[in-house]
Amino acid sequence: MAQKNENPVHKADGTGQPSKPLTMGWKELYLKEDWWAIYLGFAMVIVCLVAFVNGSPIVKTLTVNPGGLKWTSLDQLFTHFANNIHLYGLQLVSWLVIFGVTTRIMGIKTSEFVPSFIILYLLSIVAFSIGGWASAGRYMLEPPLVALIIGIVIANFMPLPKWMDSGFRVEYYIKTGIVLLGATFPIRLVISAGPIALLEATIIALTTCLTIYFVSTKVFGLDKRLGAVLGTGAAVCGVSGSMAIGSAVGAKKEYVYSAITMVVIWALIMILFIPFVSKALHLNPGIAGAWVGTSEFADAAGFAAASSYGRFAGNEDAAIQGFTLMKVIGRDIWIGIWSFVFALIACMKWEKEECGVRPSAMEIWWRFPKFVLGFFAASLVMTYVVAGYSPADFKALVKPDLFGPLAAIRTWAFIFCFMSIGLTSRFKELKEAGLKPAFAFSIGVLVNVTLGFILSVYVFGDYWSMLGK
Asked: What is the 3-state secondary structure (H, E, C) of 208-252?
């Protein structure tokens, strides 16, 4: 891949194995993307909280995008931009200041970042616009997937200059998005999933990850770090999980992008496969939504699949609720758990075997992906903030006026990430990984989709069938 790893965890020693881990010491507090993702994520949470308490619409105004328009003619789309061009201008300036200043502190040239980010922003507007088409749902054109496709097409058929990679900060955008994801995950929301949903999500997360990891390393003899990234990418939230584990274990960027490629391919397949089978079997919408939640690898793709089947079955709310409880709440929370587990294994076992030196406790701390701590910290903060609201007030006030703007900001961060992934993904570099990662991932998919069907339909079917009633 073209994107540089600005904060390498390992330095190659010429043998193909990583040498002793590198650390920055306390300089990482202002030089690493992990910390800036936390600072930025919490700053946005504070801004949203202040706006919420004061009843100010400013955050909602500055998170404008055409993704929810449901336009049927280009005139509607052009009218939207004409009426809101000043807001888009303020939004672009805000993002440029936020990301421009922080990346400059981290050592990225502002003269390269600014023009690159402007291109990224404009392309993201295009992705949002396509996703806002009234028929986009029918063709599964969710903005994150559209952004990825646009980026891949440009990178491989109309390649941009190398220096523009300075603005395509994949890890920075996804880490910021993950911290914001934690802010929209108060503990009460996790608990609301209930023991059944959390139990099924746990079974899926454990089985899928461990299956792919052992098939990758024991059957195909792939690198342990690649196995960890592939396994987590399938078991949790594809792009976010792959990025988080890649950072936790010091994986090569090629490993991370190989996992993301497989996530996207299978996510697109499952958009078609699960609704098709669900229709053939006349599954209850809640059950089908839960099955989508167990076997989809990207939130945007899963939402599209659950929504399309729910509309077909006459109960879209039940299908989306089943998907949300199973995937967005149940499985995505495992991002932090797997990050901690694999970071610990990488430090205490893999690097000891490779370097012959057992890392100190502080080394483990330097290595741990700090943005995962930001995810949990943001969740705890928001849990405290919303603790005094009744369920009715939470749904009527907090969710639309506080969580809504936070989710909108998070969506922008994820769109920037997906577009950046596409813009730094070259097919010729992906081929270097070979077919073994694809085979290992696909075997895990077969286990995942089969187990998810059995659990959702037969084992816990009574629970999921009650949704929406």
From this structure: HHHHHHHHHHHHCCCCHHHHHHHHHHHHCCHHHHHHHHHHHHCCC
3-state secondary structure of 25: helix
Query: What is residue 2's predicted lDDT score, i.e. its pLDDT?
Result: 39
Query: pLDDT at position 9, please?
Result: 39
Cα–Cα distance, 226 to 258 (Å, whole number): 9
Would you say how long the chain is, in residues? Answer: 469
Model confidence pLDDT, tens digit, residues 284-305: 999 999 999 999 887 777 887 8
Q: What total number of domains does the chain contain?
A: 1
Q: What is the pLDDT of residue 268?
A: 80
What is d(CA 101, CA 95) in angstroms, rounded to the nearest whole number? 10
pLDDT at 181: 84
User: What is the b/e burial string over 308-335, where b = at least 16 CB atoms within 10 angstroms of the residue's CB?
Assistant: bbbeebebbebbbbbbbbbbbbbbbbbb
Low-confidence ranges of the chain (pLDDT < 50): 1-22
Going by C-alpha positions, the residue among 20, 19, 24 that lies closest to residue 366 is 24
Beta bridge partners of 18: 12
* Virtual torsion, Cα 68, 268, 263, 124, nearest 10 deg: -30
Closest CA to 148 of 260, 45, 60: 260
Instruction: Report how far residue 369's alpha carbon sits from residue 142's, in angstroms, rounded to the nearest whole number.
Output: 29
Nearest to 36 by CA among 171, 181, 238: 171
For residues 324 and 12, what is the distance between their CA atoms, to the nearest angstrom? 41
Whether residue 2 is contained in a domain is answered as no
How confident is the model at residue 142, as a pLDDT?
A: 79
> Are the CB atoms for 327 and 300 separated by under 8 Å?
no
* Within a domain: 7: no
Residues 6+ apart with CB under 8 A from 157: none
Backbone angles phi, psi at 71, to 5 degrees: -75, 150
Residue 16 covered by a domain: no
On whether the CB atoms of residues 103 and 39 are closer than 8 A, the answer is no
> Structural domain of residue 452, as residue ranges?
28-465
pLDDT given at position 364: 67
- Residue 181 region, left (φ>0) first, then alpha (ψ -120 to 50), else beta? alpha
CA–CA distance, 196 with 463 (Å, rounded to integer): 8
Nearest to 328 by CA among 389, 414, 246: 414
Q: Is residue 10 part of a domain?
A: no
Q: Which two tokens stand for residue 285?
A: 């919408």
Closest CA to 335 of 201, 452, 425: 201
